[in-house]
Amino acid sequence: xxxxxxxxxxxxxxxxxxxxxxxxxxxxxxxxxxxxxxxxxxxxxxxxxxxxxxxxxxxxxxxxxxxxxxxxxxxxxxxxxxxxxxxxxxxxxxxxxxxxxxxxxxxxxxxxxxxxxxxxxxxxxxxxxxxxxxxxxxxxxxxxxxxxxxxxxxxxxxxxxxxxxxxxxxxxxxxxxxxxxxxxxxxxxxxxxxxxxxxxxxxxxxxxxxxxxxxxxxxxxxxxxxxx
Amino acid sequence: xxxxxxxxxxxxxxxxxxxxxxxxxxxxxxxxxxxxxxxxxxxxxxxxxxxxxxxxxxxxxxxxxxxxxxxxxxxxxxxxxxxxxxxxxxxxxxxxxxxxxxxxxxxxxxxxxxxxxxxxxxxxxxxxxxxxxxxxxxxxxxxxxxxxxxxxxxxxxxxxxxxxxxxxxxxxxxxxxxxxxxxxxxxxxxxxxxxxxxxxxxxxxxxxxxxxxxxxxxxxxxxxxxxx
Amino acid sequence: xxxxxxxxxxxxxxxxxxxxxxxxxxxxxxxxxxxxxxxxxxxxxxxxxxxxxxxxxxxxxxxxxxxxxxxxxxxxxxxxxxxxxxxxxxxxxxxxxxxxxxxxxxxxxxxxxxxxxxxxxxxxxxxxxxxxxxxxxxxxxxxxxxxxxxxxxxxxxxxxxxxxxxxxxxxxxxxxxxxxxxxxxxxxxxxxxxxxxxxxxxxxxxxxxxxxxxxxxxxxxxxxxxxx
Amino acid sequence: xxxxxxxxxxxxxxxxxxxxxxxxxxxxxxxxxxxxxxxxxxxxxxxxxxxxxxxxxxxxxxxxxxxxxxxxxxxxxxxxxxxxxxxxxxxxxxxxxxxxxxxxxxxxxxxxxxxxxxxxxxxxxxxxxxxxxxxxxxxxxxxxxxxxxxxxxxxxxxxxxxxxxxxxxxxxxxxxxxxxxxxxxxxxxxxxxxxxxxxxxxxxxxxxxxxxxxxxxxxxxxxxxxxx
Amino acid sequence: xxxxxxxxxxxxxxxxxxxxxxxxxxxxxxxxxxxxxxxxxxxxxxxxxxxxxxxxxxxxxxxxxxxxxxxxxxxxxxxxxxxxxxxxxxxxxxxxxxxxxxxxxxxxxxxxxxxxxxxxxxxxxxxxxxxxxxxxxxxxxxxxxxxxxxxxxxxxxxxxxxxxxxxxxxxxxxxxxxxxxxxxxxxxxxxxxxxxxxxxxxxxxxxxxxxxxxxxxxxxxxxxxxxx
Amino acid sequence: xxxxxxxxxxxxxxxxxxxxxxxxxxxxxxxxxxxxxxxxxxxxxxxxxxxxxxxxxxxxxxxxxxxxxxxxxxxxxxxxxxxxxxxxxxxxxxxxxxxxxxxxxxxxxxxxxxxxxxxxxxxxxxxxxxxxxxxxxxxxxxxxxxxxxxxxxxxxxxxxxxxxxxxxxxxxxxxxxxxxxxxxxxxxxxxxxxxxxxxxxxxxxxxxxxxxxxxxxxxxxxxxxxxx
Lengths: 228, 228, 228, 228, 228, 228
Fold this sequence. Notes:
- The structure is a homohexamer.
- By secondary structure, chain A is α/β, with parallel strands linked by helices.
- The first copy, chain A, contains nine helices and eight strands.
- In chain A, strands 2-1-3-4 form a four-stranded parallel β-sheet, with helices on both faces. A four-stranded parallel β-sheet of chain A has the order 6-5-7-8, sandwiched between helices.
- In chain A, β5, α6 and β6 form a beta-alpha-beta unit.
- In chain A, α7 packs across α8.
- The mean pLDDT of chain A is 93.
- Chain B binds chain C through residues 48-51, 53-55, 57-58, 61, 82-83, 85-86, 88-90, 119, 121, 124-125, 128-129, 131-134, 148, 224-227, and chain C through 48-51, 53-55, 57-58, 61, 82-83, 85-86, 88-90, 119, 121, 124-125, 128-129, 131-134, 148, 224-227.
């Protein structure tokens, strides 16, 4: 289909893909194309380590190559942005990582962003990424809720823990905008915004919005990979 | 009207507003709202100095206050982002500056951005802004075409000068994505992309796209101004 | 008069101008010129927001233009440094902003500076300014006393609150020099220094001292605004 | 064997592994252990893209897991440091990446380092890495010789091209120490040092030296990956 | 004498001290104290290396201790700021280094400063100092005239070489304010300003002006050295 | 002797030199040269101030000059790295400072380093040094144990105080690797690692390891001092 945006959940948990699908729904009305969320079957149930993040790149690239002819823009929907730069070598079409897009969107909504991470162990990985992006001057802090990706399906306890974590970022770290540091958490956005009085960026929404705009405006990157 | 995005050209040159209007047209199909470009009658013919940039804030704020009840999101369409933070005090609705949005969009399309300025004298002003945004780690350089804002209406000579400036940014400064450092230059985007092989970001398009997404996703900022 | 330094209070509260006048008195003996403090009649009673800061630039520039022929150097005496760069376009004579001068002076007196702000809402505005100046590496922190500019006239409660705020900057943030983040607070300097054992910079004093030196040494800037 | 250091060439070109083996020879005398260079059979002939760099992580991790019981420290011998952080999750034993070690070693030998890259397309990838490491303040520049990894086996033309590139880094960028931006180029070190009068760091040598020291001094990292 | 400012030339060349004395003359009228320039007899003829800079600290400290009871503020008048932090441990009275003061003054006069060094070999030493001060964001560049400190006494050739160096900083590096990277060059300031159209900061003048202001305003630092 | 590494303790406390000698013992087996630790007789009992740090440079340089013909590499074994850059002017042979080497080694073992200082007053001095090195992006924090250098000989109380300080760096500042901010504390390394579960870098060990590698690999710096 013309103007198809492919949002790839690089973990294999379909419930996460479904949450993404709900999250991007507000972007669909009137977009003259399709926003399609797919699950990377070869991915782990959740990406919770650098190794898992690195290891999904191979199947992710194969998926992207297969789908490229039918795809106008890609979104890699994991907050470690696995394969973001690899995909940008494969195709000159726009490719967005949800961490990159989520953080950049936050910069338009507040002065200093706080990140609600899932696991404590993600924080150093994200810190490297943020420095790599050159955005550390605006980082207020990152705090973990302490759940695994798969445990996020249990909504009951998650919401109050996320609000509590966001409150610490606001009150202890001085964040005035929050970014959800994981895909598939958009369902909690409204409750957090309401409880904390801060804008909350769901990174999958942010990246999908970037993709819609990129398709409409016709951005096309120069390939940065090796000449072939 | 529900979901109206107000793109304010803070200079009084209607031809510039018309160019913006053409530029944002690709974002309109299907957006369940309106993207309306207006001219700030009280503005100067072109904003070419810090003083002009500062002096338009007062009428800009009055316009924003008048229009706020009917407006879902604002875009300040001058590359000095005049009044961006003042407007963010007036309203909790999303407000975008075209410089901020243009630069952030460029970060998703390349590693190092180059800015095509109009005038040499804008460069120090932009340098302060980029440092204020915390984005200098990704700046490749800024170069001026050397025309005044109003002279940009003469398309003939402008295009080749802009391409030449973009080429210097690419070849001398190492930019792999360009940002047009002025509103109302989107008409030259395609020619530059074609001549240079780099993505070129028109900042008004970038900010309007941010505004569309913000309306669709319901972002709402905390007010940062003084309690009233 | 020859060698007149014009210290402009851009708010309209004469008591603040009078406090400045007292503050700069130690710089007068022997200066072969005049340090004159004036009130911008068109200003608000206090500048407590970005909007107010931006909106005083127009009358400030008009005042500066009127007074330029009789003025050897200008001081903009509000900690948001409104119009600092606009005035630097209007005249090649030295122009100092009290925030800029206060922070730079602090760098000679300590390793890490803390800022005593008036209002919580000023802090993000100052943060942008500090990044814009490129001085964030030396910032220990900023804390607000929580009074409005006009309330500062009530000396009783203010002093103990300022000392308390300075103590938090020293003990929690590691500041070893403090900067008063508002004009017209110099009367509290001695009490703070005595209570806290740290040097305290009144920014109006700092900028006026810079202006005196600039006049004596004959600095003259290149105009950075548009050619006219 | 006790105290075995495993230097893993993640490309499958045995000649590169052999060059590494020669390069680390000066570190062997007296080290009470073994420095063993191995080829990752599953790797591509050369790692010339982000995708290749990411895709070798999976087999690299499997190799590391297999060899961990017999290994005291690991070296990942590709200048993109593929899998460096993944391996640091797998084992608490020291793991060194040749880019990280090469750059850190250069910081002890000069004020500003220049990198001799193989391909132009590697430069943005390295730039992200250097920012991620937080070392950009000391980067003089990076320039490419323009050969593919495999072409490096042809010694004749390579040497003069590398000297020429190093000279540009010294004379145009102000580098006073050079880092070879690829594994397996140590054979050219002496000629470059002699021609240019600057210290030249072979990154595989640098990382292997770090590994020897780490084994001798008994460093042991805390695992940063997910609890298991 | 009350309010004596001691400007210490840490090299033993009396002609340099005399040039400083001329340089600070414009600050004397009306200062209710004395600005006295003295030569450190134990210093080398010129400080042209890190070693010389470090080695003058011992006699410099002894001189400062002897003179402290009669001194209200100190200026260390060598662009390497030798002993600046050591003196700040010895006395709580204000101590200024001419490099620190010169650079900070330049920040009020332009957007990006260029430094006119004497020798090529000083540049890495200054680069470390500028990073240590946290001011590198505003550095345009540094270029050397290529004379030794003592050769500067020969005015004929020096002036044109300094103008030429300043021109390179302006035109190649984008500096809009220059700092003389050596004490005792103030005699060339006017000619450079006139030839280049940029403000030129003589660092000894800048530091002496800081000292005058500090005495007038009564700054007193907390001692940062070890408790004794 | 061929390949002699000279580790210079610039304080005159022989017990500190002896502790260094024990610390570097693991690097000796098999090194085809000598690692010799010497005491600078002219040094103070402990270097606890900037002045002391600066004042040892003169005798340190004389010692280095005397010993240079017999020395393959130097280590300056005080965490203020006194004379590091002066020695690098005197000789093209590798010279290592224990602070520089300790911090760089820490970067390979963790994401953010914490420094265990001896005295509170050292912290601003180290902060300048870390900024001078360009490594502040990775600094988690620095905390002092509050003992003087000579008091460190009393092992009983020191160990628990160091562990307590390291715990604060880990838990309050987020450090995942610690650096001992003083020479001669290596005896406490094992107890700290065991109590805290973090790698701990003794800087003398780190620098001596760098020196061994530099000798084995034949690094030779370009002289950065003045031509002689």
